[in-house]
Amino acid sequence: MMSETYNIGLGNNNSEIRKKADSDFVSFWDEQAKNLSWFSPWKKTLDWQPPFARWFVGGTINASYNALDIHQDSKANKPAILWEGEKGESRILTYRDMWIQVQKFSNVLKSLGVQKGDRITIYLPMVPELPVAMLACARIGAIHTVVFSGFSAASIRDRIDDSKSKVIITADGGYRRGKIVKLKEVIDDAIKDLDFVNNVIVLERTKNKISMSSKDKLWNDLMKDASASCDAEKLDSTHPLYILYTSGTTGKPKGVLHGTGGYLTHLHSTFKWAFDIKDSDVFFCTADIGWVTGHSYVVYAPLLHGATEVMYEGAPDFPDASRMWDILQKYKVTIFYTTPTALRMFMKFGDDIPNSFDLSSLRLLGTVGEPINPEVWRWYFKIIGKEKCPIIDTWWQTETGGMLISPLPGLETIPLKPGSGAFAIPGVNIDVFDENGVGVPPNTKGYLVVRNPWPGMLLTLWGDDEKYTTVYWSKYENYYYPGDYALKDEDGYIWLLGRADDVLKVAGHRIGTAELESCIVSHNDIVESAVCGIPDDVKGEVIIAFAVLKHGVGVNSDNLEKEISEKIRKDIGAIATPKQIYFVSKLPKTRSGKIMRRLLKAIASNEKIGDVSTLEDGTAVTEVQGVFDEIQKSIKEKSG
Ligand code: ATP
Ligand code: MG
User: How many other C-beta atoms can be found within 10 angstroms of the C-beta atom of residue 28?
Assistant: First the structure.
């Protein structure tokens, strides 16, 4: 594996934490949980009845209390959220503002008969009322289930039906690329045949015309007379905080259920270790709250710490490719957390754009969601971080609740390796197994496993313990199986190599999609790539690759294909050479921005495309269809 390292950290060196964690992970997490405010202490730190883990059993706590109430003495006037609208408008909400809004909205929910344990679907754009609604649910013990506001009626209907939400919170519309997305209309359509839905609360964001039925109530009308005082419920540590459906990269989304005390402990700890959060920081995570990154690192973790954060409403490249850098400069952001997909897009636009902004406030950068290609890491380090900010490549899933693998500059200073998430966080034990459950030697590919339960671990899949058991706990007994492919190098650094489902099997060799794609992206003219295996009469399976060219690069595809193939032969080996490379302008992605290789595979092997519910939405479907057509055309041209 590549030994390129970057010696850049923040000067922290706290080796005690790792020592304690290694000696006994249960009492280690017991210690960490004391950083939160509990109404009453727990009796048992971990109740582990595989595959079900329950943390801090017997303790009572409230997420909204820990996010807001605890800051009212010292930080009432500190901004919690610096909100930037897509059209450029700003709103600042202090910790006091949030506290008042949340209590009022908790009373609104109560007035509609919402009780502890009830599910509430939230379908809102990225406006401050979204975290307000979530925290209000948490305050009274209702289980929120946020659905990304880009989903279509059919997708949202499935999720409302699965969770049996009695109350829906939505808006008249939301802004996306200057256009109004009519959210209320989508909800009307989604709940047509769902009689169990009693109330729809409608926030007026865009003031477009909507039709109101007897179930519908306006947010402002309800809030007008609501009392601003609502005590936080004393909830069991294991009380469910939310259901969140996974992004569906590999198929039908799963309803991940998270608890309270363990989840919050995990977030409080990782936010401090990974981001080195200080009172003076301005944190900006670009994730939509509709995904787990938004739940954990936009809503809960920053507020637990009383941090100030930027929340942005719109598309990252609207009205143009400079929007993100403009926001970083405007709010003097110190910590920036985004996705490889977004970075590849920014990279495609060239260096001049970020170079024309003052990004000197930045001190730490992070990524999440997909493996980051080393080429992209170096660009992020140099062009955005000006070679002075450590980059944390954080690996985790909806199911894990928070980060499990990441460099932790807030805790320790280690050499960074572009493309590696470095080590497991303290208190988490990660290994790489072969097919038979045996740990593999260094530099050998295998399956990532987690050896013991961790506080942010999902409780189960909503209403489906059996599926929970089969998906995560049946490949290896009593070890959590995330479904990702990985290796540990000679220094123990963990490299994520892509999804186990996407692994390429060529002539008995297993090749991770991430390593091959990174090799292709390391060519100067290429910014993004996806590879997949397709059936072949002679070889069983052959690799095909898709590549997106940099802006302004013309295709002389024969030459380019040769150059790329040579690079692959040199860096990985002849075995990994694709049978064909197709040049396209974009790749099909989930709404969370992840490449859907199984779709490429289906198109290229002329198979049915399967479940695309996570791609659904008016514009996304046409966009993806366009990509399909383009790919199909280029495949035909090649073979004809
Ligand atoms: P589904 O499970 O429905 O297919 P999903 O896995 O895309 O959806 P998420 O929980 O949002 O939904 O994504 C988690 C996955 O994202 C991980 O399992 C991993 O494949 C990938 N991932 C996240 N962070 C990283 C990272 N830093 N490096 C490599 N892969 C990552
Ligand atoms: Mg997944």
Answer: 20
Mutating to test ligand 1, I would choose from 242, 249, 495 the residue with most ligand atoms within 8 A of its C-beta, which is 249
Whether the CA torsion 145, 149, 153, 154 is positive or negative: it is: negative
Could you tell me the distance, in angstroms and rounded to a whole number, from the CA of residue 484 to the centre of ligand 1? 8
Exposure string for 274-292, b = 16+ CB within 10 A, e = fewer: bbbbeeebbbbbbbbbbbb
The answer to whether residue 205 is domain-embedded is yes
Residue nearest to atom 16 of ligand 1 (CA): 369
- Which ligand is closest to the CA of 255, given by its number? 1
Assign residue 70 the CATH number of its domain: 3.40.50.980
560 lies in a domain? yes
**Atom number, ligand 1, closest to the C-alpha of residue 395:** 27
Query: What CATH number is associated with residue 525?
Result: 3.30.300.30
Is residue 133, in this structure, part of any structural domain at all?
yes
Q: Is residue 543 part of a domain?
A: yes
390 lines ligand 1 (CB under 6 A): no
- What atom in ligand 1 is closest to the CA of residue 421? 27
Q: Taking Cα atoms as reference points, which of 258, 557, 536, 274 lies closest to residue 401? A: 258
3-class DSSP state of 18 = helix
Structurally, the chain folds into a number of domains equal to: 2
- Three-state SS letters, 497-516: EEEHHHCEEECCEEECHHHH
The residue out of 206, 233, 260 marking a domain boundary is 233
Instruction: Give per-residue pLDDT as tens, 66-90.
Output: 999 999 999 999 999 999 999 999 9
Q: What's the pLDDT at 587? A: 86
- Confidence category of residue 637, pLDDT binned at 50, 70, 90: confident
591 lies in which domain range?
Answer: 502-639
Torsion 115-120-124-126 (CA) sign: positive
For residue 263, the CA-to-ligand 2 centroid distance in Å is: 18
Compute the radius of gyration of the chain from its Cα atoms.
24
* Ligand 2 centroid – CA 434 distance (Å): 20
**Total H helices, total E strands in the chain:** 20, 30
Q: Among 171, 203, 233, which residue terminates a domain?
A: 233
- The packing angle between helices 557-571 and 513-521, to 10°, is 130
Percent of the chain with pLDDT over 90: 82
pTM above 0.85, yes or no: yes
Q: Whose CA is nearest to atom 15 of ligand 1?
A: 397
Segment 413-429 shows an average pLDDT of 98
496 lines ligand 1 (CB under 6 A): yes
Give the start-end residues of each E strand in 489-579: 494-499, 504-506, 509-511, 526-536, 540-549
DSSP code at position 406: -
What residue owns the CA closest to ligand 1's atom 30? 370
Q: Whose atoms come closest to the Cα of 148: which ligand?
A: 1
Q: Which ligand is closest in space to the CA of residue 370?
A: 1
